[in-house]
Write a structure and sequence with these properties.
Layout lengths: L2 H4 L22 H8 L3 H5 L3 H11 L10 H14 L3 H7 L3 H16 L13 H15 L6 E11 L22 E8 L5 E9 L4 H6 L2 H7 L4 H9 L2 E3 L10 E2 L10 H27 L14 H11 L4
Parallel strand pairs: 1-4, 4-5
Antiparallel strand pairs: 1-2, 2-3
Length: 315
């Protein structure tokens, strides 16, 4: 019998020894600050001022018992940034149960905090006008009626169980990984002002957008939103994966066939769509949890993704 097995047996009795229990460590925010020091802002993916402001806004919505709000938020931001609970365990010695409880407490608080609400008010003409100067001035675009840009991002996740999804194959994308399709709209400051996470990975962008509440409103020519945007001449920039409809500015066919006005239209439209593409790139690089498949219960995945979009508002 090997020495490693003999070490697990008690002398003479032949009974397996009881594993040594390690007492749980109560981590304070000063411990977290001391652990990272000058690298605190890099670890949290935001400045210290933004972190304290976020903690003040989430504090009323977090449980009063257990770890302090700052500790809970720091644990979750570390998990979002590194994409693994092992980061917390190795650096802070925090038990995995603490990480799990803090994760969903903070996610629920983020998704219910008005300060982090995506302020996309298309039904308000003054609000739509407020988005325009940034897009037009920063790209020197002649399109003064384009207010925002929309695009799609596929968030990779683990294969769902047959008990979670009636058709598991619908979540497998054409690139052979399982994902959720997310539609997002951003302004010229790379801040997301609208997002939806409701379609499986096999869904094409145009269909996924049509299934959202915003897409249904724009598909209905008699809706209040469509009538208001048509009256004011406002549009949302989109790429060729979206179908042409009222309220969306999409590329036209005939590029490179001598149609100079169409080429110019595509050039300026593409320059406006850069904002949403860059915003998605910043989101992916900011939160390391997007670098590997999501490993959380199937029903909680949309709320987790939505919380990361909302937190992107805090720099």
């Amino acid at each position: 019998m090997g020495s490693w097995w003999r070490g697990e047996l008690e002398g003479g009795g032949g009974k397996l020894s009881t594993p040594t229990s390690h007492p749980r460590r109560h981590v304070s925010f000063s411990d977290i600050w001391a652990s990272y020091g000058l690298h605190f802002e890099i670890a949290m993916r935001m400045s210290a001022d933004a972190f304290y402001d976020l903690a003040d806004r989430l504090r009323p919505r977090l449980p009063h018992r257990g770890a302090p709000p700052e500790v809970r938020i720091a644990i979750v931001l570390l998990d979002f940034g590194g994409g693994s609970y092992l980061d917390n365990f190795a650096t802070l010695g925090v038990h995995t149960c603490t990480v799990h409880c803090a994760l969903w407490d903070v996610v629920d608080a983020v998704n219910s905090t008005p300060f982090l609400e995506m302020d996309f008010q298309l039904s308000s003409s003054p609000r739509r006008l407020a988005y325009a100067p940034g897009l037009r001035s920063r790209r020197n675009s002649p399109f003064g009626n384009v207010r925002e840009a929309v695009d799609e991002i596929a968030v990779e996740k683990e294969q769902p169980l047959a008990t979670d999804a009636p058709r598991v194959e619908h979540y497998c994308t054409r690139k052979s990984f399982y994902a959720l399709k997310n539609q997002a709209i951003s302004d010229s400051e790379y801040k997301f002002c609208w997002m939806a996470c409701s379609s499986p990975g096999v869904t094409v962008d145009s269909t996924a957008f049509s299934r959202t509440s915003l897409g249904r409103q724009l598909s209905d020519r008699d809706s209040v939103l469509t009538l208001d945007m048509t009256r004011d001449g406002h549009r949302i920039a989109a790429d060729g994966a979206y179908a042409a409809r009222e309220g969306l500015a999409v590329p036209r066919p005939g590029v490179g066939q001598g149609y100079r006005w169409r080429d110019a239209f595509h050039f300026y439209l593409s320059s406006l769509r850069v904002y949403i593409e860059q915003g998605i790139g910043m989101l992916l690089w900011r939160w390391g949890v997007f670098w590997r498949p999501l490993r959380v219960p199937f029903a909680k995945r949309p709320s987790l993704v939505r919380a990361r979009f909302r937190l992107h508002k805090v720099f």
